[in-house]
Amino acid sequence: MIHFDDPVSRVSVSDPKIADINVINSKEIYILAKSIGGTNLILWNKSGKSSVKEIQVDIDINPLITNLSQLLPNEKNIQISSVSGSVVLSGSVENIIQADIVKDVAEAFIMQINRMTQG
Q1: What is the model's pTM?
Q2: What DSSP line would sit under 19-71, residue for residue?
Q3: pLDDT 10s per residue in the chain (119 long)?
């Protein structure tokens, strides 16, 4: 949800394959991410003046972080980030078995994301 101080009379998204918009009312819109990438949201006020907002859709890595924290609660030096639709793992773990678990869970997470975005 995005809230605006001033009423918006018209909205448009430049790439509807990336995100879709639903106008709730003149001061609120809902943005639905559809696939990874970037697009622009164009807003017009009642006087016709426009503004452009960039929208970047990326992977929500919070479920992966939660799963790894639950599976490996003693591993505190794992960093997970998302860059341009890829998951990046860094840091260190206690042993190779823990590293394999992290890798396997991350790969399963990415496979699930790919199924959801292609399905």
Answers
A1: 0.68
A2: EEEEEEETTEEEEEE-SSEEEEEEEEETTS-EEEEEEEE----HHHHHHHHHH
A3: 999 888 999 999 999 999 999 999 999 999 999 888 899 999 999 888 999 999 998 889 999 999 999 999 999 999 999 887 789 999 999 999 999 999 999 999 989 887 876 75
